[in-house]
Every structure is written in structure tokens, then in C-alpha cells.
Amino acid sequence: MITAFINATIFTGEEFLTGKVLLTEGDRIRKIADQQSITIDANIIDCNGGIIAPGFIDLQIAGGGGFLFSDSPTPEALLAITESIVRSGTTGFLIAIPTNSEYVYHKAIEVIKENPHPAVLGLHLEGPFINPSKAGAHSKHHIAIPGIRDITDLLSGASGVVKMMTVAPESCTPEVIKVLKDYGVTVAAGHSNASFAEATRGFRNGITTVTHLFNAMSPLHHRDPGLPGAAFMSKDVYSSIIADGIHVSYDMIALSKSIMHERLYLVSDAVEESSHGPYLHVRQKDRFTLPDGTLSGSSLSMIQAVRNCVQHVNIPLEESLRMASLYPARVIKCQDRGLIKEGYRADLTIFSRDFVLTDVIINGNQLK
Q1: Whole-angstrom distance, CA of residue 356 vs CA of residue 47
Q2: Please, which residues have CB within 8 angstroms of residue 40's CB and are 6 or more apart in sequence?
Q3: Which of 51, 86, 124, 160 would bridge 164 by S-S if both were Cys, CB 3.0 to 4.6 A apart?
């Protein structure tokens, strides 16, 4: 059946269109057309003057719906997390697993393999090959020195579930990065004390993105620009950033955007409250912390991140939306997400002019 979305401004990922209707069929975008193209038997969805955008893509979110996945890698937790995240407007995401035991990694891989969902793009293993001096809220107990055998043991049976891995470039040989890439993993630099030279060398060896710019990494310093400076100076390396005004100031987001342009994209780095396991996240008013007060994760959604970029960083709405959809799709090479375009997935986020989420379409289906 054809579904027609009417009474909306359509953001295609490239431009805003008004006076048009968006037609989907099954799980795909059919076309953007004139009003008279609507057939009598079409299912009509009135967007009430809102904005239709490509579904948001979050490459780093650890939990939701009452569950932290690394503490509860079960089908029940995966379903609750997924439903919660999709209802927030994010139609594609990587579940982040912080530095953890081999058991947790393997269990998480098994659960995702056996319980496919169109919104679950795979896993982002944030560790264990990170620098202990930049562990941040990560458990130091499971931090490891990367070895080829360790990686092959982990990934050989993963069936492509692991889509991204955050590593400290100063700890990884070119051979380690090559093996990760051979398994189809997007390699990210983060939780790292890399010098500018070490980070740049990692980029040359195949690292293509940076995890939560500025957080848990070497500082941007006038004597050594460190990992942030290397990301700034690169011509093609991307970087995620947490736009909650807490993890990174809005002024620093503005500075980063002015340098990196389309290479800067949004992640939530959202966690969930947890009272057991190695990650004891405590919910505060606008963030999560460890029991000792250490900042441990955000309470951000992607629609809030987009709003913050528009209202506090003065990034135009169209560019803020790309940072939440098109650019992360590019990072993990999702060929049919991030744009509203013929043949692309019918994953849509619909919201009002004041950033109130009004509808989510995933796989062509309207959430009830």
C-alpha cells in the first residue's frame, strides 16, 4: 500500500521542500510528488504543518527503557531499549558496550544476532583497547592491549554485528587496525592520550572517525594539539560530539563545526540508570554520573541534540539534521539511510517547528 504524508515541510537531507507530498510504499521511499499524485486508495498521514526529516541515526547509545545493555545483554532488554530509542525519533542506532569482559561482548553479539530489528544497526564496542589514563567512566579492570588473536576470536563469529570499535590509536599497530577493517568494523579513535603525531599516524593507518570529541582524550594544547587537533587538521576523518552543553560547551561545538564542517556529527552517548555491574550510573537532573560524581553519560535524545545545535550553537536546522542522520550514515557506510530519496528506507522523524516529536516511521510503519 502507498502511504502519503501531507501537510508538511519535507527535508530531504539536501533541501527543504514545501507544497509537496511524500509517498512511501512498503519499507521504501517511493517519491516526492505533487498533491494530485495521491491515489484514492492511499493511506493518508497528516503531518499538521510539521517537518519530515530522515530518521535519526545514533552511533553511540548504551541503554534506554530502563536497561543498560552491557549490564543486561538479554532479548528482553534489547526490545525495551529499542522501543524506547525509536520512540525518541531515532530509527537506526548502534548499541555501545563500554570496556567490559569477553563474556559480555560475546553475549551482546549473540543477542543482537538472534534478535534482528530494523533499528538495531549493530554494536559499537567502546573498548577494551583504550588508554587507562583516559578511561573516564570506563572500568579499568578490563582494559586490554590489542592483539590480533583477541580480535579474531571476538569477531570471527560475530557475523558483522560489530560495526564500530573505539580504540586508542597510540595502542594499536597498523596490523590491528587492518584486521578490524577487514572484518568490516569502522575504527574510531577515543579514550586516548594520543599525541598529534600518534593520532595522525592512526588516521593514516585506517582510523576514520573520533569518538565523542574532547571527552576522554588528550587535550587541544598549544604545544601539542593532541587527538582533537589531529581531527581538526584531517581532511576526511569524522568525529562525533555530544551536544548537551555539559560534555562539551556550546562555544566549543561552534568552533569544532567551523573547522570540521560536514565531518562533525551528533551522538547522544546516552546511558541508563544502573545499580549493579561495573557501571553504576546515577540519574541526575540533566546527566548521568558515577556514584562519586564523575560524568558518565548523557540523558540526551537526538531531537534534543538537534534543537541544541540550532538554538545554542546557531547551526542552521538543515545542517543540524544532517549531523543527526546523513553524516552518521556515511560514517558506517549505510547506503540507504540518511536521505529522503527514491529507493531509500522509509525511516522518518516528524516533528513540530518547536522540536516536539510528533511521529516516527520505521520500515514504512507508523509507530502506534
Answers
A1: 12
A2: none
A3: 124
CA distance 356 to 333: 29
What is the distance between the alpha carbons of residues 196 and 299, in angstroms, rounded to a whole number? 31
Residue 119 identity: A
Q: Name 282's Cβ contacts closer than 8 Å, sequence gap at least 6.
A: 273, 288, 289, 290, 291, 296
Sign of CA dihedral 290, 293, 294, 299: positive
pLDDT digits (tens, 9 = 90+) for 252-280: 999 999 999 999 999 999 999 988 778 88
CATH class for the region spanning 2-53+339-366: mainly beta
**How far is the C-alpha of 171 from the C-alpha of 25, rounded, in Å?**
48
Active-site residue identified among 71, 244, 269, 359: 269
Q: Write the CB contacts of 14 (distance below 8 Å, at least 6 apart in sequence).
A: 339
Within 10 angstroms of residue 272's Cβ, the number of other Cβ atoms is: 25
Cβ atoms of 62 and 69 within 8 Å: the answer is yes
| Cβ neighbours for 195, distance < 8 A, ≥ 6 positions apart | 170, 218, 224, 226
- Cα–Cα distances in Å, from 134 out to 65, 167, 253? 29, 11, 21
Is the peptide bond preceding residue 98 cis, with omega within 30 degrees of 0? no
267-to-62, 86, 146 alpha-carbon distances in Å: 11, 15, 26
Cα–Cα distance measured from residue 67 to residue 274, given in angstroms and rounded to the nearest whole number: 8
Fold of 56-331: TIM Barrel (3.20.20)
Question: Distance from CA of residue 269 to its chain's centroid?
Answer: 8
Has 269 been annotated as catalytic?
yes
Determine which helix (DSSP H) or strand (DSSP E) holds 23, and give its type and residue range: strand 21-25
Confirm if 169 and 202 have CB atoms less than 8 A apart: yes
82-110 mean pLDDT: 97
β-bridge mates for residue 187, sequence order: 165
Return all residues near 309 (Cβ < 8 A) that are at least 6 apart: 243, 253, 266, 315, 319, 320, 323
Helix (H, G, I), strand (E, B) or coil at 145: coil
How is the chain split into domains, by residue range?
A: 2-53+339-366, 56-331
Assigned C-alpha cell, 137 = 567512566
- What are 153-196's pLDDT values in tens digits? 999 999 999 999 999 999 999 999 999 999 999 999 999 999 99
